[in-house]
Amino acid sequence: MLFGYRATDNITPGFVDISGSGTQVLAGVDDEIAFVQVGVNFKFYGQTYNSVYASSNGLITFGLGNSECLNSSLTSTDWIGHAVAVLWSDWATHFPGSVYYKTVGTQGSQQFIVQWNQVMGHSSSPKNITFQGILFEGSNSILFNYANMKTGDGRADGGTATVGLAKEGTKIVVGTEPIFMPDPNWSTPEDPQVCEQDPSRCIQPVIQVGEQPTYNYVDKDPLEWSYNNAIIGDNYSIIYSTVPIPGAIWLLAPGLVGLIGLKRKYLG
């Protein structure tokens, strides 16, 4: 049976600080990704993974890394690979910022934690923030924990961030577009005065050499909690739980319009 997700913030916050015990990656970087072995099998939208990509910009992706710093709505983004947007925005891990990861718990119910620790808004922000995403073995639930979210500027409380889950969807061909390349038979005029008199004659032309397909994505089923909306406060958590796809469709589709309005309510 295939499973989707539903979300609620009606839970007791459960931040698990791993900055003193986890493996450190992405220290002192901007717009970078790290490939990480999870150590457990985690099933996300019907596919099982034992590795992820973590970006310095608050994203966890499966199958392909994504270092994009310009966040967008999950309802409009054509994802290549499934994505977990813990707090997707333009963050940097300049000192003392860093990213940590760690697998904890007992076999069969382990938890894989990625923690963005004391990161700042690029290129700087008055204050640093800390948040984390946790993948649960067995239940395949996902927990977002936010320790402190006060950046001291417009990025505070997720004001410039995307939060939620994104499914890759099915890629379909919708058309074609031309492929161009520089004309290999063209050469620069020998007389330099030609370029001075008519600069256009000294620009190498391009020629069409073929066509390539263009794509669209359907059946993406994103579950977006917030987009550029300052509703993610300090000591705050969101839990994403799996539900069978028929139930997930019933729960998620109406929620796309009003997830923010349903804050503090169970989406069911």
Written overview of the protein:
The protein has helices at residues 192-197, 245-258; strands at residues 3-8, 23-25, 33-44, 47-55, 59-61, 83-88, 91-92, 98-104, 111-121, 129-136, 142-148, 162-166, 170-182, 206-218, 223-227, 236-244. The protein has 268 residues and is mainly beta. The radius of gyration is 22 Å and the shape is globular. It starts with a strand and ends in a 10-residue tail after the last helix.
Offer a few descriptive terms.
eight-stranded antiparallel β-sheet; 2 helices; globular; six-stranded antiparallel β-sheet; about 45% strand; 16 strands; mainly beta; about 270 residues; disordered C terminus
Short structural summary:
With 268 residues, the chain is mainly beta.
**Helix count, per DSSP?**
2
Calculate the terminal CA-CA distance, rounded to whole Å: 20 Å
| Series of H and E elements | EEEEEEEEEEEEEHEEEH
- Portion of residues within helices: under 10%
Rg on CA atoms, Å? 22 Å
Q: Quaternary status of these chains?
A: single chain
Structural class, judged by helices and strands? mainly beta
User: Strand portion, in percent?
Assistant: 35-45%
Work out the number of β strands. 16
Unreliable residue runs? 247-268
Question: What's the pLDDT, averaged over the residues?
Answer: 86
- Shape verdict: globular
Give a quick account of the main beta sheet: strands, pairing sense, barrel closure.
8 strands, antiparallel
